[in-house]
Amino acid sequence: MFRINTITRGRFGNKILHYNSLAQLGALYGRPISCGAWEGHEYFTDLKTARDLEKEQLFLSWQEILEHDNLKLAEEYEYELDPYCLHNSFWKLTHQDPRTFLQIKEAHKPNLPKDKINVGIHFRGTDILGADGNHGREIHSAQYYRDAINFVTEQLGDVLFHLCTDDLNFKTNQEPVKYLQMKNLRFKKGNVHNYWDDFATLSECEVLIASSSTFVVCAGFLGVENKKIIHSMEWIQKNLDHTLWHPYKEDPPEVRKTQLSFDNFWVQLYNGGNEFYHAWEFI
Hints:
Elements: E1 2-4, H1 12-29, E2 33-35, H2 40-43, E3 44-45, E4 56-60, H3 62-67, E5 77-81, H4 90-93, E6 103-104, E7 117-122, H5 142-156, E8 159-164, H6 171-182, E9 187-189, H7 195-204, E10 207-209, H8 214-221, E11 228-231, H9 233-240, H10 253-270, E12 281-282
Parallel strand pairs: 1-2, 1-5, 4-5, 7-8, 7-10, 8-9, 10-11, 11-12
Antiparallel strand pairs: 3-6
């Protein structure tokens, strides 16, 4: 058995990625899975719940998963999944459509217009300014959003934009709103007080203008299939160059190794991704 006893301490996107890694491992190796309680049980159908430990438990690290094509798993053990097994292991493990394991409950799906192409825009907030946000490394410029808006309208014509964030007051997020108003483009603001409403909206949009967040990444591989997803080339380049997460210091080797494993998610996305998640355009 593979198990998550306690879901990763990250925010909602990371929790979805942690669960996806668990479910994909179970499918790849033909073993049952067990998962402790988290908010996903409220929003997705048929998520696996916690099961009693039946055998001695071993820890399965993200390094072991990435470094071995076939894990050597002993039948006499159960394996607890590393809480850092997130988007760093996505390409290695995701061989089945994540929608197989993460179906949004009908009661939680938004009712988006059917006569328009729905375009979700995700903005990160001031959480990216502190240490956990790598001191602004992940900020996407207002120019990126303006260019992406222009690209979408040129390619698709009349669309409806859905603005999703928990911090519309962040200056970088205010400028694209003013741009939409100046261009007389139709848009709706999401629910800054309820992340699930925003996640469900993004998951049901046909097009996404993405931030660096795993929140919007997960919305990209759930809900509506074959989404057209736009990413910032400036952000991708930081990962291609493996720029330091904290520019004022060099982190310890083991920390840096973990950081590089997450950079590589974006590197592989730039190289094509997979059939379940790939970029429409880099802007």
